[in-house]
Each structure stands twice: as structure tokens, then as C-alpha cells.
Amino acid sequence: MTKPAAPMLICDLTQSYAPHGGGGIGTYLREKRRYVIDETPHRLLQIVPGPEDRVVEDGRHIWVEVGAEQVRGSPNYRFIMRTRIVRDVLERFRPDLIESQCPWVLPWTAINYRRAFPHTALVAGYHTDFPNAHVHRVGSELFGEFVGRGLRRLATGYAQVTYREFDRVYTLSTMMADVLREYRVDHVDVLSLGVDTALFHPDRRDIGFRRELGLTALGPLLVYAGRIDNEKRADRVLSMFRQLPRALDAALVMIGDGKLRDALMAEAQGLQVAFPGFMADRDKLARALASSDIYVSGMADETFGISIVEAQASGLPVVGVASGAMTERIVPGTGLLVGVDDTAAMAAAVAQIWHGPRAQMSKAARDHVAGRFEWRQTFERLLGEVYPRALATARARNEKGRSGMGAALSLLPRGAFRQANIRLEGR
């Protein structure tokens, strides 16, 4: 398939955006804007939560922030509850296609809008298996495993009902596509995300980086980049670091922000650990990754792992866990996978890589990413395959609806047809 020929207005709609400390969705929105504006004739409307209502129109790009309260316990994220404002924005701009990128509240705003404007195609990005990664995990921690399982069943039912309403759904891994099919959602594509391999490159290595952080250790510099919170299991990274042999003389830099950051900083007092915060400047992040030696992550529910491919593009072997999309990102020769929450095994894997074929792993990691996970490839597939399938489904749905209405009206007596026609035109 090819990109739709006629210029469209494409809409991104998400709760999962944060200007500071945010993760993959923020990167995705930024890279998508660059591709759509630079490489296509389309217009792009992006609706996200913000501190207050704001609309910025810049040529073919429209940026809308809907005022929303902060999520309790999160320093970065806000949650839109004022769906009437979102609906007003949609009715003002009338997008041809809406891409929903989060599971809560806003998908139904898009679905209800489509019911009023049936020409609109709906695409959903299933970025996280939220019944397991969010609902079950949090529910079990708060109320116990029995209640957690019950809440997961409710969330699974919600996912089934919600995503069947979309004309097309994409996931970020084959594993997640299989999960959706278990939910009886079959109209699924697998879309790989990307990395700017020119920006994230081993040549950005700077030997002065660790000195700037105040780190004096001469062994491996380990790096983690992402939200420092429970979902990402960031505390496991620090626990792993504490178990490294003293003779390894390692240091750790944890890049990002999140609700565990202050607690982990206090716990790491006196250790060779730095917390430089969230790096909004992508050049600085690229330099930080390339200047490190091994990337580490304990995340068990990764759905793609943009931070993983950015580290690999920077020439870093990865130590991760054998769960989620990690098993697809970290192929043999590019790093090591251990059991979930097995911090002792993570520490052993770090030492094994440092004393082993680290140079070969570094090259293999870069080779694995370059030419395979480029943002251009992501958006060529999205606009060239996923969107056309959604638009075709929307057209077929509308044609079926029109033919069904025509057949029903043809059965009415002539006078009744005239009366029914008047009522329809008056809506």
C-alpha cells in the first residue's frame, strides 16, 4: 500500500504526554510531526494534556493543550477529564483520521466523535498491555492478588469493547499483537518504533562526561534512561548496582525523573551514582548514552523500548530482563537477559559483559538497529499501510450503512418515504 494521495488532517490524541520526564510518546509525537510536515502534504493536529487550554497553529501543524490536573503521585503527567473540550476541538478542525495513543477516557471521546462524523477513520496505538502492566500490578499491590486478578478481568473486558470500535489497531511487538488477539481484537498491525541513528551514534562519546557528573570510578559506567518509577522497576537498577563486585569499580547514571527519584537519590548517598534528571535536549541525551558503557533496565512490561534502541544505536550492550518486548529488542550478541527482578543475575551479567567481548557486543548492538529501526521506516509503514487499511474499513462501513438505510427506506410506502426523508434532512 502507499500513503493516501489526498492531503488529510491527521489527529493524535493522548493522555500519555509530559513535556518533562516523559517517555516514548513524547518522542513519538515529536518525530511524527517532523515526518508529516517535512515529508507529506498532510496536516497534523496533536491534542495532549497541559496546565491550561492552549492552541498553537504553525502552518500545517496544530498543537492543542487541554487544561488538566496533575496525576496524583506523578510530577510529570496530567489527565484530561474535560472531554467536552476535546470534542469541541475535534468538531472545530474535523480530522479525517484520529490516532488514539492511550487507553483511558479519550478513546471513547474519539469513538463518540466518529459516531457523529462517520467518515472519520479511527486508529489505536496499543502501547501498553494496561490490564496486566497497570491494573493488575497496582491492584495487587494495593488490595492483594485476588482483587488484582478481578480488576484485571474488568480491564480486559474494557479493552475488548474499546478496541473493537477502532478501524485498525497497531501494537509495538508481535508479543503484544498476540495478547490483543487473545482479547479477540483481530484487526491488528505490528509497528516498530524508531531511533535517529545519526543523532544516537558511538561517535558522540565524550570521556569528560563522567567527570562532569562528579563520578571518579574507573570501571564501567552503567546508564539507565527513563521514568524513575515503580512501573519501570527503576529501584531494581540501584539494587543491582549495590551487588556489583567492589573490584569492578563501576559507576551508574540514572537519567530521568519520576516519583522514586528522591527516594533512590537518598538511598544512593555515598555511592558512585548520579541523577542528572530528565534530559529534554536530545543532543545531551545522545552524548550521555554514547559516553556510557552498558545500558541497564529492569523493566518487565516493555512494549517496545525506545530507550533500548537509542542505547543500542549509541553502541551500548544491554542488560535487561527476559520479559515483554525486551526479548525482541535484545537479540543474541547484543546483550544479556536475566529473570525478572533477579538483581543478582543482572549484576553478574554486567560483570560478564565488562570482562567479555564488549567491543563485539557494542558493534553488534549498533548493527542490529541501524537500517532496521529508523523513524522514517516507522512512519512510512504507519501512513503507507496502517492508515490506508483504517480508511478502507471506514469507507466500507459507511457504504454498508448507506446501502442498509436505502434498503430500509425502499420498503416504506411512497408517502412515508417522503416524510422519513424530510426528517432525515432536518437532523
Average pLDDT works out at 89
The portion of residues forming beta strands comes to: 15-25%
- Give the N-terminus to C-terminus distance in angstroms: 37 Å
What would you call the shape?
globular
Question: What's the story with the biggest beta sheet?
Answer: 8 strands, mixed
Contiguous low-pLDDT stretches (5 residues minimum) are: 407-412, 414-427
Q: What integer value in Å does the Rg equal?
A: 24 Å
Share of helix, binned:
40-55%
> Strand order within the widest sheet?
3-4-2-1-7-8-9-10
Number of discrete helical segments: 16
SSE topology sketch:
Layout: E1 9-13, H1 24-39, E2 43-50, E3 54-58, E4 61-67, E5 69-70, E6 78-79, H2 83-93, E7 97-100, H3 106-116, E8 121-126, H4 130-143, H5 145-163, E9 168-171, H6 174-182, E10 188-190, H7 209-212, E11 221-225, H8 234-242, E12 251-255, H9 261-267, E13 273-277, H10 282-290, E14 294-296, H11 306-313, E15 318-321, H12 326-329, E16 335-338, H13 343-355, H14 358-369, H15 375-410, H16 414-425
Parallel strand pairs: 1-2, 1-7, 2-4, 7-8, 8-9, 9-10, 11-12, 11-14, 12-13, 14-15, 15-16
Antiparallel strand pairs: 3-4, 5-6
Question: How would you describe this structure in keywords?
Answer:
globular, eight-stranded mixed β-sheet, alpha/beta, six-stranded parallel β-sheet, 427 residues, disordered C terminus
Could you please describe the fold and organization of this structure?
This protein is an alpha/beta fold and 427 residues long. It has 16 helices and 16 strands. An eight-stranded mixed beta sheet has the order 3-4-2-1-7-8-9-10, with helices on both faces. α8 packs across α13. The two termini are 37 Å apart. 46% of the residues are buried.
